[in-house]
Amino acid sequence: MSKKKPLSQGQRRRMRANQEKRLQRRADENQAPELQDSSLGPELLGTVISRFGQHADVETEAGELVRCNIRRNIQSLVTGDKVIARLALEQSSTIAGVIEAVHPRHSSLSRPDLYDGIKIIAANIDQILIVSSVVPSFTTQIIDRYLVAAEDTGISPVIILNKVDLITDEEAASIDAALARYQAIGYSVYRVSSKTGEGVEQIQGLLNDKVSVFVGQSGVGKSSLINALMPDAELIIGDVSENSGLGQHTTTTAKLLHFPSGGDLIDSPGVREFALWHLPAERVGWCFVEFRDYLGTCKFRDCKHKTDPGCAITQAFNAGEISEDRYNNYHRIIDSLDEQRHARHFRSEDD
Q1: 105 pLDDT band (50/70/90 cuts)?
Q2: pLDDT digit string (tens) for 259-288?
Q3: Which of 79, 168, 292, 318 could form a disulfide with 254 if both were Cys (CB 3.0 to 4.6 A apart)?
Q4: Which domains does the chain have, with CATH numbers?
């Protein structure tokens, strides 16, 4: 029996396109019928609490939570978006209204994905709370990736070290030194324990009257910390895997939660590594705040900030103006950019 000839790239692309069309037709057939304009009330301002496929839960200014269809002309909708919605005059199904339009965002947090490109996680955020901990492990590399993402979006970052009750005497000095380096370049740093309650009140005050988003590796205790801040949230807590040491994902979709004081919190899906392949190297350098005074003053315009002659960044590092940790993390990020772009290219070709 002769072997089947392997499919060409063009054939695979056409097969994938046809499959996507069939899946879309099936989804259109299964989704709730569109509400007619004549059955809808006046336009109302609302906030997206969470999105589920072609539906979203919207909270109106009156505090009513309703599930709405999303108009097909709306290209992007995420938790935190301010929207215009119209509610059904007669509530006879689980779908109570329609989202007609989305207001412009004053900020958005995006995450690149090897399969789906740039994905917006949440919108209209005032601050990003970067949660780290000693379990699964304390690493400044992940913190610096989140700081680059925050600086790129213009959203104020805050660093939170959780599970401080688990810090050993051997770890204390190095962790203290690392956090002090972040404070020295202008970042706010807080130490908390969602288990003992240490520092939780400070974080609560930080959240008042702001829209915040928690980010960090799975297993660092984001959900546990949110439960400590807001017991009524009842978020699922995922333990760290004993086999891999990695955290288990517990949040599958972003959700907006309210604090009694007036602040809002967006709990976002956990990510184990915050990729930055969508950023050019020059932008990554700018997102390291202590580099900014030296950028543009190197001898060569295409300076790689390594062994290049006349490099202002390297000179500042050698003079102690830039910490070794941050300098090395910058180069790790730069070195990873091409690798991640390369991986995405081949995955998109093979899918």
Answers
A1: very high
A2: 877 799 987 664 445 678 889 999 999 999
A3: 79
A4: 37-102 (2.40.50.140), 108-267 (3.40.50.300), 281-350 (1.10.40.50)
